[in-house]
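Practice problem: M48 family metallopeptidase
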Amino acid sequence: MKRALLALGIATLVVACATTTSPTGRTQYVGAVSQDQLNQLGAQAFAEAKAKEKLSTDARQNTYVRCVVDAITRQLPAGWQTQWEVAVFQDDSPNAFALPGGKIGVNTGIFTVAKNQDQLAAVIAHEIGHVVSRHHDERITKQQGTSTLLGIGSAILGSAYGSGAGNAAGQIGGAAAQTFYLLPNSRTQETEADVVGQQLAAKAGFDPRQAVNLWQNMIAAGGSRPPQWLSTHPNPQSRINELGARAGSLMPTFEQARAAGHTPKCGS
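Answer key — C-alpha cells:
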C-alpha cells in the first residue's frame, strides 16, 4: 500500500509537469497550470490589487512608468509583445511587480531609490524577466509537487504510526521543504530575472550600469534583512558585484541599441 501511494504520487507529478529551458539555459519543471490559467490568475490578482490599493492620479508618474514599460516590452519575443497593463500605486514601499497576462504594478515608493529612467528600467525589466522566464509557472508547479509528496509521506506515516505522527511529519516536512527546497529556487529565479532584465534594459537603450546604482540606493535606504540562506533574494553586495560584471559585457548591446535609435526619453 505504501509503495502504491508513492508510485501514484510520482506518476501524478510526472504527468502534471513538463520540462523546458529558461532564457538562461536552466532546466525548468512547469505545467501544473496552463498559460491561459496563469494569465487568468495574473489578471485576477491585478484586479484585486487595484481594487484594494490606492492608485496614483499623478499624470507625470503614470506617463513616466508607461514610457519605460513600453520601451522594454518592445524588445520582448513576439509571443510576449501584448499590450501590458500598468498601474502605479500610491504606496511608500519601494516595490514593483509583474504578473502573467501582461500586468505591471509600480509603487510610488520606488521613485525614492530609482533616481532616473535607467534605474527604473532596471526594476521593471527585472520584474518582466520573472514573467518571460516562466517563474510563476515554475513556482506553482514546484509547490504543487512538494505538497503532493508531503501529503503522501504524511499518509504513509499516519497509517503506520497514527495520525499524530502523520500530521507532525507533514508540518516538519513543510518547514524543511520551504527552507531547503522552495526558497533556494526562488533565489535562483531572482538571479535569473537579474540576467534577463539587465539584457532587456540594454536592448531597449537603458544603461545597464545603472542597475548597480539602483541596488546601491536600495542598500542606502537601509532596513534589516534576513540572512542570505533564508532569503528569497540574493545577498545585496553579491548582487551588485554580479550586476556590475554583467553590465560591462552588455555595453556593446546598449551602444548598438542607441545607435539603432532606441533612445528612450521618459524623464527623471
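Discussion: Confidence is low (pLDDT under 50) at residues 1-15, 146-184, 226-230. Students who identified this feature from the C-alpha cells alone can consider the problem solved.
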